[in-house]
Amino acid sequence: MRFAGKGTPLVQADLLAALDRLGLDPTADLPALEAVLAVESRGFGFLPDRRPKVLFERHIFHRETSGRFAAVAPDLSAKTGGGYVGGAGEYDRLARALALCRDAGLGEEPALRSASWGLGQVMGFNAQVSGYASAADMVRRMCESEAAQLAGMAGFIRSEGLDARLRTRDWAGFARRYNGSNYWKHQYDVRLKAAFERFAGGVSRDFRTRAAQGALLYLGHNPGEPDGILGQNTRRAIAAFRHAEGLGRGETLDDAIHAAIMKKAGLG
């Protein structure tokens, strides 16, 4: 399976569609949804190479394969979680798990089910309750756009009744089901509450800027994590893009530069 797709960033309409699907208020509950995205994936669903962000869970792989690979690959199959390397390195772990499964005649599903994917870090084993035919189906769609990643996250939240937890700001109740019973070890509830208060307090993301940041990330100009805020790193990335494309000096994201960035990244 190819994991790199177009990597189309979110637009505001995608968030509103997710809120509507969950029966949440588009104004009052938007910061709650944004808080989940910020905590799960730092607010952007793709790596610079356009592969969805992924985290391979060795204890899930152990469960999905009945521990048959624990002796030959204890870093990939164990009763306890851990062994993370982060970033693109998680795909190296996934690739090894996929190879083990293929060689054993198990297909790709056990390995794909053992990783969390994209904006909402939805586990592969939750693919069907999230609205997909299989983990492979979910992954294929999530490779194309953040909209698909958000739709999968919304599907999982709805299937578990977690929309009610978001509505009442029950962060511990949400984290317990979304992140597992050990959520408190990583302070998921504390981090969700803090992120919600930040967004509810007026921090907002401009999705036009965020899309350009995603494009600049794909083009190798390092704008920082796409957050919709035109900060110093993004301004430097715009200046680097302009220099590389012979578009003169400047750091502003006017309409012409925005269009040029998106076109160069194949997103225009």
Descriptive account of the structure:
The chain is an all-alpha fold and 268 residues long. It contains 13 helices and three strands, in the order ααβαααββαααααααα.
The secondary-structure element order is: HHEHHHEEHHHHHHHH
Indicate the low-confidence ranges by residue numbers. Answer: none
Strand content: under 5%
Describe the main β-sheet briefly: 3 strands, antiparallel
Which value, in Å, is the CA radius of gyration? 19 Å
The tally of strands reads 3
Query: How helical, in percent, are the residues?
Result: 40-55%
* Mean of residue pLDDT values: 95
Query: Pairing-aware structural class of the strands and helices?
Result: mainly alpha
Q: Strands of the largest sheet, in order across it?
A: 1-2-3
Report how far the terminal alpha carbons are from each other.
26 Å
Shape category: globular
Number of helices: 13
Number of structurally distinct domains: 3
In brief, what are we looking at here?
With 268 residues, the chain is mainly alpha-helical.
Write the layout of secondary structure elements.
Elements: H1 12-21, H2 30-41, E1 54-56, H3 58-64, H4 89-103, H5 109-112, E2 115-117, E3 122-123, H6 135-142, H7 146-159, H8 162-167, H9 171-179, H10 188-200, H11 207-218, H12 232-244, H13 255-264
Antiparallel strand pairs: 1-2, 2-3
Helix pairs in contact: 1-7, 2-10, 9-10, 11-13
